[in-house]
Amino acid sequence: MRQGITDAVKHLLIINVLMFIGTLAIGNGEAFYQWFALYFPKNPLFQPWQVLTHMFMHGDVMHILFNMFALWMFGTAVEQVFGWKKFLIFYLLSGFGAAIIQVAFLYVQYNSGLTTLIESGIAQTDIVSVLSEGKYNTGWTSILGDKLDSFLSAFNSTMVGASGAIMGVLVAFGMLFPENKLMLIFLPIPIKAKYFIPAIIAMDLFSGLTGQSFFSPSNTAYMAHVGGALTGFLLMYFWKKNEKDKYRWN
After folding, report:
1. CATH number of the 7-241 domain
2. CA-wise closest residue to 163 among 230, 122, 222
3. What are the boundaries of each domain within the chain?
């Protein structure tokens, strides 16, 4: 396996860095976020292209450094097996899968609160109108109780980062190189990829369902990680199952 950065990984790194520079340089980041971050589809700031562009946006220096390091480390090895065309398709599909699962999870939270408000006698158009102004009615607190925070967070959520796509790449790496040993920075114990990667996914799933964070910030889109990993696994499973479809596309 040759050393260095492969073609698709190199270009993905460049695009991510350029987008990050643009975020810092234009409108103090606000303009780029409104254009390219992924907003909840009911939010008036949502645009269809955000399903793609959010993968190339990052919140801060540590966010992009960590993601780009992971993309280089695992993506290079996977691309050498797949070839650049197949790797790029795999990467983007994993990112789309991450977005779909995260948005679906937010819809569950949003619809739960919306249904409760409607059942209390408030018109849906009035609810959406208030939310679209970036506000909420304080009277909703007594109606929604513990649901209020998740309801408001779902509507106002934004998602940025390559993490979902990279989780798919991480799954591919684990399936291609199951005996390779990996370790966390905060837990420097070598663990085989076939054990390490499922453990990371399980922690993301637990954090997404409970809100309890292990190593990531509390605002991490954990279900996007799970969605990217699930998409990556399904792609690997069906590509491997189809004998006519070899791993590599030149």
Report:
1. 1.20.1540.10
2. 222
3. 7-241
